[in-house]
Prior knowledge:
The structure holds 2 protein chains of 2 kinds. By secondary structure, chain A is mainly alpha-helical. Chain A has one domain (18-232): Four Helix Bundle (Hemerythrin (Met), subunit A) (Up-down Bundle). Chain A has 7 helices and no strands. In chain A, helix 3 crosses helix 5 (148-161). Chain B has a 5-stranded mixed beta barrel. Chain B contains 4 helices and 6 strands; from the N terminus they run αααββββββα. Chain B has helices at 4-34, 36-39, 45-51, 135-143; strands at 59-65, 71-72, 78-84, 89-95, 107-115, 118-127. The termini of chain B are far apart.
Amino acid sequence: MHRFANPTRFLRLANALLPWLGVAAVGLLGYGLWLGLLNSPADYQQGETVRIMYVHVPAAWVALAGYSTLALASAAFLVWKHPLADLAARAASPVGAGFTAIALVTGALWGQPMWGTWWVWDARLTSVLVLFFLYLGHMALTNAFDDPERGGKAGAVLALVGVVNLPIIKFSVDWWNTLHQPASVLRMGGSTIDPAMLTPLFVMAGGYFAVFAVALLLRIRALYAERRLRQLRLSLPDA
Amino acid sequence: MSRRPYRSRKNRRLALVIGGLAFLGIAVALVLTAFQDSVVFFFSPTDLAAKEIGPDRRVRVGGLVEEGSVTRGPGDGEIRFLVTDGNTTLPIRYVGVLPDLFREGQGVVAQGRLAGGTFEADEVLAKHDENYMPPEVADALKKQGHWEPGKPMPGSGS
Lengths: 239, 158
């Protein structure tokens, strides 16, 4: 990991990866939507509405993976003080917030026809809403200081405190009674989704993760350029 | 110049982060355990019977709609059904529109008050289970008697 803490080496790798990730994102999302919307069976209970799963579930997965990225980057920044880790954390939170918002909105659109309600305050829905606010809080806190070093530190502490929410989200449906159904894919005893539906779900998940990676790398690159510009401006003698 | 103090500072920060997370995790686990009753979205009929909740408290009860228990009327839009968790069965009365997914043998969550022995619901939500499959597969599984709706599929995903 320390090898890639060198910004030049990291950017070289990111620039080499970005076009491939972009192609993968477009290809997987296109193929996944075609499979999910047109070439997969309707559900025995939910009918055609089950297709919302293909846009909802991967968004929720990326929302959780995005927070894990944010937390790991924050821990690396606090422990090893790599400036690049700070940039990665700052890059991750708006992207993660975006995917969390997609999960919340598509979940509401799915809940209305199936459960009969847009929103309930059950443990799963509430903990994902908390995740969304943690992302927003991280964005606000990191930019609330004039000194980016202090902002990054404060944000990193907040991000690590929020890590307790991740197991709560994942296991909320097992620990407590919720309206949200229990896990279907990552559960003991294997998936309870038919293979004909699991394939489009995994293809879409691949596409979502590729979009996340593209957005994350682009943002790290932009934040790095911004930081360099700031340093150059500070090094200039006052005109 | 020795590298030692530099390294030990890092190790101390790492220990601080890990230790802090461990303590935070324990604290949150204790709080969530203490507030168990507020975190659950609904009670099962068995929980409800054990809790002796008065008619003035609005609660949610959830379980499976018992097969063959749904009757309509006499009032307009009035519906009565039994909700069971396998041990206890609770009669529910509801006036209103039911969600699409409401059917016998499937999960529901009703919100309302316990009046006498009947639960007077003012809202009924459908709870769907974790199984997703095409109708043909569901029929085939049911025909072979391998699986009962509302339960996780046996040997799925293998």
